[in-house]
Amino acid sequence: MITDRGFEFLHKAIKHNIDKPQALTNGRWQDGKVQKTEVTSNSIRIFCYFDETVVGKITKYRLLGKDGNVFLEKADTADKSYERGLLVLFEIQIKEG
């Protein structure tokens, strides 16, 4: 069974190796910011914020590692206006098997 310290270890490893989130908006990648990360009883959550400068039809999100490689990605469709920011959640479920 993974311990609380094990979850913290994974959380720190992920948190310290993420560079930035990006949204594919109108066919062009635009940067966002990691707002926060948190640990739950069975997952690690990464909250990403895209501000008012990201505008258009979003079709995909991704998280880049500090090594420049894509760590996580997910498809989604959203029409984003300049009036508001957008908060996107990446959640990594941890299950032992």
Q: Could you give the order of strands across the largest sheet?
A: 2-1-5-6
Largest sheet: 4 strands, antiparallel
User: Which structural class best describes the helix and strand composition?
Assistant: mainly beta
List the uncertain runs. Answer: none
The H-and-E topology, N to C, reads as HEEEEEEE
Number of helices: 1
The proportion of residues in beta strands is over 45%
Q: How does this model look, in words?
A:
The protein has one helix spanning 4-15, and strands spanning 18-25, 28-31, 33-39, 43-50, 56-65, 70-80, 86-93. A four-stranded antiparallel sheet has the order 2-1-5-6, with no helix packed on it. A three-stranded antiparallel sheet has the order 3-4-7. The longest helix is centred in the first third of the chain and has 12 residues, at 4-15. It is mostly beta strands and 97 residues long.
Structure described in brief:
Helices cover 12% and strands 58% of the residues. By secondary structure, the chain is mainly beta.
Annotate the secondary structure layout.
Blueprint (H helix, E strand, L loop, with lengths): L3 H12 L2 E8 L2 E4 L1 E7 L3 E8 L5 E10 L4 E11 L5 E8 L4
Antiparallel strand pairs: 1-2, 1-5, 3-4, 4-7, 5-6
Keywords:
97 residues; mainly beta; 4-stranded antiparallel β-sheet; 3-stranded antiparallel β-sheet; 1 helix; 7 strands; elongated
